[in-house]
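Working notes for the structural subgroup meeting. M.R. asked for a predicted model of this chain before we commit to crystallization trials. I am recording the input and output together here so anyone reviewing the notebook later can reproduce the run.

Input as submitted:
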Amino acid sequence: MGNDKDYELVNKDGLLQKFCDGAYESIGSAIYVKSLVVNIDTDGVDVKFIFLNNGRKVLRVLRRDNVTKNGIKELTRYGAECWDNVAELYVEYFRNKLGRVEEEYYYSNVGWGNYKGQEFFRLNKAIGFDAKYNDSKYDLNPKGTLDDWINMVKDEVLPNRWLVVCLCVGFAAPLVKVISERDHMESLLFNICGTSSTGKTTAAKLAVSAFGLPTDDINGLIKSWYSTDQSLLTDLGGNFGIPIVIDDTSTADAAKDFTQAVYQLAAGKEKNALNSDGTKRSQGNSDTAIILTSEKSIFTQTDNKTGLKVRLIELNVPKITSSAENAETIERVSMQNYGHAGIKYIEHIVEIGKDEIYDRWIKIKSEITAMVKGDNLFKRIAGKLALIRLAGELVDEALDLGIDLDRLTKNLIYIEKKSMKTRDEGEQAYSFLLSYFQSNQSKFFKDKDRQSLKYKGELIGKYIQINGKLKEIRIPTEQFKKLIEKGKFNIDVVVELWKKRDILIHDEKKNTITRIFKSGMPKIAQYAIRIKETEEIKDTSIDKIDEKIHDKIAKDEQEDSEKRSDDDEYFQDQLEEHKEHKAKGRVRPTKDDSNQLEDIMKEDGISVQKKSTKKKVVKRKKPIN
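Returned structure, recorded in token form:
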């Protein structure tokens, strides 16, 4: 029957019929080819079929290469009548129709995309192209209303400087790809750090709520460190502009080293891996903003490599939200009204165009660079700060939120200034060495003092004192390398920095000195570390060293506080401005709102000058009679 070509197959009266010699022969119930379904990310093509099963419309999809005699028999599971004896006729009919049905476009990736030269942005529906999201990885379908979300942001978020920063980090996600196409830009990693109940998870949920479901459900935008690093990278694959949260590092293995994870998340590339058949699996790439949360700094669980601190911006403050009520309102409204703001925002930046976005980023980056006397790495970090600042500018244009952009810039610079103090690997290693010496003095002996060698167990090194002052610490090469590795420092970088700063005493063209380490032993290579004069450690007993080092820390903090007069003035203005707004009713009163800001300032070493409300009393001298 299938080889006879003197016939025509038609759908008639709800049946597939064979028309031959002026007569119709029923084949089975009609099955209609509705459309071709094209995945614009993979170029894969599926066929969408519609048929009736006991009067109920059924829609099923088959891969195009599965429209075969054996393939279409799968439809019988769902009520179709393409039995084995007529399957070839159905296949023939379908193939004749495939070239004449409409095409529907779908995608499985999210964020920026390009199909046949047409650029667009992929949310639940594409903006700039007629296509829909066809994957269950992320829930991007809007819920609630845009107005409720905007009102919450104006009432609960804008009065709080750190919540505004976190909000803008989320809106920076679509800008990463725009810049990375024209300049060096990795994914934006931003860690919100703080103890429990400080508002870090609330801030993270707020940051992603503009784009989709802000929960840790299987298709939510919040992921967990319970997953392996590889699983997280796989999940991020194909994301080119939707912000993602990886919540709570404490859910990971307590001994986990986050060094590799930070590098891989920033690079946005999976490790090379093989499929089950041994073939190389395609790598999933990403360019987006990734918001992390942790109870303590992630850098406490990484190597002390400077490169890490260029790749990760960390907000480490005592409190993010202003009160429990503030946090509860943000979470509730975000859960009930998500996904709308992202659509309006993307429509705005698509209309502006990528070229203008890039030009504005360059301008803001230059302005930030000029405002900060940074180190050699600051230019790279300035680009990421400019990305967050530009996001604030663009979302304010799109949604008319009323973000104070100058204040946002100053807050970003403040975060960076705090980070710069911990970015010097040479200084960190020097502090680590002094701290280790302080806590493990029993492992060091005093040079040329036989008495100090008594009752010593394991020896790491020795120290030299002159007139009661600690001047030098010497450690044999192998012990020194182990000690530096213990602190997770790069020994080559540390040694080079110490040599440049005259901290390392060394023989010509070497990194070490070759001297007698202990009486009665031959000369050996040792690392000799000069103790800075400012350390003022005069007595090497453990109690005295502890006291002196703590005094030194206090002195450094005092000097640093004096150097930050600009920050003092700025945050004092912010405090007064906050109180003024609150007095005029422009800020919704919350418990201890201004006191919290004062606490943050004090925590950061910034003096708070309270204006006196007492009138000055002038004592008059009694007249001389």
